[in-house]
Amino acid sequence: MNGGGHRRAQARSSRPRTTIRHHAMDSPLKVLFFVLPLLALIAAAEGWYLQRRRGRDYDWRAYFASLADAIGRRAVVIALGSGVAGAFLYWIWEHRLATIPMDSAWSWLGLFVGQEFCYYWMHRADHRIRWLWATHAVHHSPNQLNLSAAYRLGWTAPVSGAALFFAPLVYIGFSPLVVLVALATNLLYQFWLHTELIGRLGPLEWVLNTPAHHRVHHASNPEYLDRNYGGVLIVFDRLFGTLAVERADTPLVYGLVKPLTTHNPLKIAFHAWWAMFRDLAHARSVREVFLTLLGPPEWHPAASQQARRDDVCAARGAVPGKGECAAVVAARAARGG
């Protein structure tokens, strides 16, 4: 090797491992950001069609709030990198059981099924652990379900640690990079699920996550809460009893249990975190601190429960303890913040 080549090789080998990890973890997320203009254009076309051809009231302010959320999320990823979870995944990779070569269809099939399984449990935890819900609530905050909601995902994923649910895949031998590629593909697939323009898809409803399944997932009716967690597949919802189908007598109501009406990207990104830390200030014991952070989103310290119930009912224009308000409170007292 000549002198120049030797110096270049030394420079490559001396690059900080953390920098290499950052770029490797960031690459699949960059793909999602680079396709954002196309996704936003398709979402705008849907909005135009709904408004002009269907006579629907389309919330363009929510459209631009979702776009601002996506741009802000990219800025956060640039600033923070892959976060704590990313660093931990690479630590696991260094202590993996084996290395699975991605040179056969069976390897890719195993990655797909494994990623879907881990995604199901991550998504289920996003809904049932308040620390994770504080980030995921952003995705459920639009009060209309349309394609622009697909890329409203919040800014705090790098600190939430949700990506740790994919650690078993890395431990058995899938590299963090291919795991993130699979996750990015999963999220891109889900873009088309966020629409009311596509009806039920016959036999595909048994295997795949479809717009019909995902509309139920985004509903805040007590009958539909915490259902249909699948990414590409719906089979794990069938296996673990979390599947729900829209009922003819119960129209879907989208958004959070306590509707979020702001279009301010900062308030959208941090409203659930603010509510969680506000509850934390009311915690009076170690148990209450633990449950406030890691318990279900509907759990609140005793000091703030009544006020939150009243807020939910007031937001829905209902009387506390009466009719639908009582059912909503019983199911999820103040899930939206």
UniProtKB/TrEMBL annotation:
The keyword Lipid metabolism applies. One of its GO terms (cellular component) is endomembrane system. Residues 109-242 form the Fatty acid hydroxylase domain. The keyword Transmembrane helix applies. It is a multi-pass membrane protein. The chain crosses the membrane at residues 31-50, 71-93, 162-189. InterPro entries: Fatty_acid_hydroxylase, Sterol_desaturase/TMEM195. It is found in: Endomembrane system. Keywords: Lipid metabolism, Membrane, Oxidoreductase, Transmembrane, Transmembrane helix. Its main location: membrane. GO terms for molecular function: glyceryl-ether monooxygenase activity; iron ion binding. One of its GO terms (biological process) is membrane lipid metabolic process. This is Fatty acid hydroxylase. It comes from bacterium enrichment culture. The lineage of its organism: Bacteria, environmental samples.
